[in-house]
Write a structure and sequence with these properties.
- It is a single chain.
- This protein is an alpha/beta fold.
- It has three domains: 218 residues, Rossmann fold (3-Layer(aba) Sandwich), CATH 3.40.50; 193 residues, Dimethylsulfoxide Reductase, domain 2 (3-Layer(aba) Sandwich), CATH 3.40.228.10; 117 residues, Barwin-like endoglucanases.
- 32% of the residues lie in helices and 16% in strands.
- The protein is built from 25 helices and 26 strands.
- It is globular and about 70 Å long.
- It binds iron/sulfur cluster.
- Iron/sulfur cluster binds next to helix 1 and helix 7.
Amino acid sequence: MTATTGHNNTVSSICCYCGTGCGVQVTPLGDGTVRVIGDDSHPANFGRLCSKGRTLGDTTGRPGARLLRPTLRLAKDAPAQAVSWDSALATVSDKLAAAIREHGPDSVAFYLSGQLLTEDYYLFNKLARGLVGSNNIDTNSRLCMSSAVTGYKLTLGADAPPACYDDLELAGCVFIAGANMAYAHPVLFRRLEEAKAANPDMKIIVADPRRTDTASIADLYLPVLPGTDVALFHAMLNVMIWEELIDRDYIAQHTEGFAALRQRLREFTPRAASELCGVHEDDIVTAARWFASSPATLSCYTMGLNQYSNGSDKNAALIHLHLATGHIGKPGAGPFSLTGQPNAMGGREVGGLATVLPGHRDPANAAHRAEVAALWQVPALPAQPGLSAVEMFEAAAEGKIKVLWIACTNPAQSLPDQALVRAALERVDCVIVQEAFAGSETLAYADIVLPAATWPEKDGTVTNSERRISRVRAALPAPGEAREDWRIVAAVAQRLAATIAPQHVAKFAFADGGSVFAEHAATTAGRDLDYSALSYAILDVHGPQQWPFDGKVGRSRLYGDGVFPTASGRAQFLDVAWRTPADKVSAHFPIRLTTGRLRDHWHSMSRTALVPTLTRHVEEPALVMHPRDMQRHKLQAGELVKVRNKRGAIYLPVQADDSLRAGVAFIPMHWGGAALGGQGINALTSRALDPQSKQPELKLAAVSVEPAKLP
Ligand code: SF4
């Protein structure tokens, strides 16, 4: 797999949507558009693409879709004016310097995206921590993955998914929990469908409040109530213990904490758990038997576990099932968290979260801070904890953030509790929005707009769900004056350094993305993810590589030797208690509203809405309810309803669907206020945080539904 195929300037690159990280071949057609086909040689997809990947070529060369020039707004009520890059960069640098001088480094915050490339992420991090002097740098990956990160770190000792995509074909049992792979990771789902067709003995279990398309291939479907998965997983482990299905040798040799957890599990009989999680007790027993008895069991999970105030507990309770049965570190087995965004994993590697430093280091650890300071040749890194995504906007609403730099994400649509988010964006003195697409609702709050290049105009790297680093390559020049994200950051950093720390100017001078990657890769030396021997040159010649990478080969699976990167070398069972989600149903708000993706749209649709064939799959948002609930609330299909709770209200048509449990309703996450006449779905969602991961509870809001009274 080389940089170009030699035909018509075709380049090998990666699809820019989900964390599967499918390889694509991109051919510029000479008119600002490209042709995209799957890359047969890429080990994520072997040529397969889903509907979104197949239509990537239709998203380029769209007049009016892109931001083409920097703009500046001199006052909050003034119109934005086009300015030169020189003027925009100077203004950003001046605003940062003034905020640091007058209010301190923590008056500055950076809110980034799992769609940035690793090189972009790395320089943002170096700017925030190494030059500005603040840990206030976080990302929209906080909304997707941080509970998975916490789950891995607390149980296995490191943020490292131990399995790989080939395990989909090698598993005897696949347990899919809180993941609609058919929509969110379609190519992985297709691999699983093909594996099941080839192996009729394979058992697939799906746990989800909705009987999604993913459940269509399930041998056992578990309609778990939103937020109650801990009861399900604890009861499964309890059954495994009763029936002697656990691997006592593995537990004794490679783990700690099982005795304490075992005490806890006594109360989680299948009957008791059934009352909590809504899954029939017989099905809990069957799931436990299949999971434990298979020669190799793989779990695939994502937002349905993570996006809850008990998301870390759910992750840990699921990982316990693998540790108790020894289904980890061998072909076809392991707890496999699927990342949502194309580079959520890369952001975790470079320290793009407030709670992480480069190379999976911890900002609360003085030795780790000193290591990074030495690598960056700065005196010290800040010790003050940084703000996570929701906390950042809460601080902004309180007037504590003076400059907020938002890159490649749309918080005015995608963060929970929109009333607070929009108040925060109005209160910040200077909102900088670095963005490629003109449709972002966050642009309405921007004082400075920096037009960014996007796929397929950027060079760099991403890491997919199986720890595989791939090259992203430019096939087109950026339109107008748009620039690559890392170049914008480097230019601002050099100007800011010239003002506040001239000795650091050269530290942000990079000739190309390969130099940024080389500096980043060096920070991983000696760490669990070590890929310090990896380079653009190796990726260009030998293709994508998994970490850890020893200079010749990456490791496909972790922990095969039973040694874990914890203080004792043993994996940890945690004494996970039962906690209910933060939002409680009540007489006023009796419906459990959950959210999720559609097959053909991506996030806030800045790109997918440009493609008519994708829009046709579902043309408008609707509230989906069980027919019995519609009867109870006297609602007709297609009727406009008001969905309301203590945070907000939205209006949209209602549809009947018995694939949902009664008492549970669903709205797709993609549509914002522009489509719904004011506020999007996140007017209703909760900013209640998981105390360990700081991930908000986007998957559950207690709401009422009533016929809309139109004026
Ligand atoms: Fe792109 Fe994900 Fe579809 Fe692959 S599965 S083509 S990465 S959206």
